[in-house]
C-alpha cells in the first residue's frame, strides 16, 4: 500500500480519513492521512492517490487543492498527490506555485518523509481582538494589561465584563453583523491571503459618552472606544540546519536550528534532537518589518 511506503513505524496512518472542514457540518474524506514527527514538528499530511490511465491533469488537481485550500477547507500541513501515470505540464506548474507535492507511484515508494523539515511554512491566525484604544487614554496604564484586567461600565453603572470580553461582543455581535460592517470580515480574510505580508487589521469606532473603565481600583472616564481586529494568513520559507556539539568527556549531542518567516514574523528555534521530550527549547520571534503599515480596513463609527 502507498501509505505504508510513505510513513515510518511510529507514524499514525489512516485510510479514508474523515476530517472536519471549516464551515461545514459534514466531514470530508482524505484518501490517506499521515500524522507524525517532521523534524521538530507534529504535522499532518493528506495524501490523495489517483490511478488513472493518463497523466493527472490541471482540472483534477484543482479539485483536490480546493478540498484543502478552498473556503470550506480541511486543515492539513501538507498536500501530496500520487499518480501512477504522472502529471500534465499544467498540473505540475500549478502544484509548484501552490506548494503541493506531486509524486509518481515509484517516487512515493522510496520517499523518506520524516527526515525532512518543511520548506514552506504556513502561519494562520483567525480574526481576533489585538487592541482597544480609548479616548481619552487612561493615564499610566499598560495597554496589554488593561485589555485583560480592566473592566468597563456603562453610564447606568452596569458591569459589562472585561475590556476584551466587551470588545469581542461589540465587534462580533454588532459591528460585523450590521451594515456597513457586514461582509467586511470576509473581505479582510480575502485581502490578507492575497497580500505579500499576509496580515491585516479591521477597526471599528464606538461612541461611549459617560462610560468608565475600571483598572486596579481606579476609574477612568472615556468618550470613545476603538477596537482593532487582527488576522493573518501567510506562507513563508523555512530552513533547517543540524549541528553536533562535542563535550570534553567525548559525548556528543545533536541540535536542530530551524528558521522560518511568515506573516511578518521571523521565528528561530533551537532544540535538541534527542528522543523524548526536549529538556530545553530556545525560541526567538522578531518582526521582519516593524514599521511597515499593515493592510487596514475600517467600519463606520457606531
3D architecture notes:
It is built from seven helices and 14 strands. Helix 2 (about 60-70) runs parallel beside helix 3 (about 90-100). The chain is α+β, with helices and mostly antiparallel strands and about 300 residues long. It folds into three domains: about 1-115, 3-Layer(aba) Sandwich (Trna Endonuclease, Chain: A, domain 1), CATH 3.40.1350.10; about 125-230, no CATH class; about 235-285, Nuclear Transport Factor 2, Chain: A (Roll).
Structural class: alpha+beta
Please, what is the average pLDDT?
77
CATH topology of the largest domain: Trna Endonuclease, Chain: A, domain 1
Unreliable spans are: 289-295
What brief labels describe this structure?
single chain; 302 residues; alpha+beta; Trna Endonuclease, Chain: A, domain 1; Nuclear Transport Factor 2, Chain: A; 3 domains; nine-stranded mixed sheet; five-stranded mixed sheet; 7 helices; 14 strands; extended
How would you summarize the topology of this molecule?
Layout: H1 2-6, E1 12-19, E2 28-38, E3 41-50, H2 58-69, E4 78-83, H3 89-98, E5 101-104, H4 105-110, E6 120-135, H5 143-149, E7 151-153, E8 159-162, H6 163-175, H7 184-193, E9 199-215, E10 218-246, E11 252-262, E12 265-272, E13 282-287, E14 295-299
Parallel strand pairs: 3-4, 4-5, 9-14
Antiparallel strand pairs: 1-2, 2-3, 6-10, 7-8, 7-9, 9-10, 10-11, 11-12, 12-13
Helix pairs in contact: 2-3
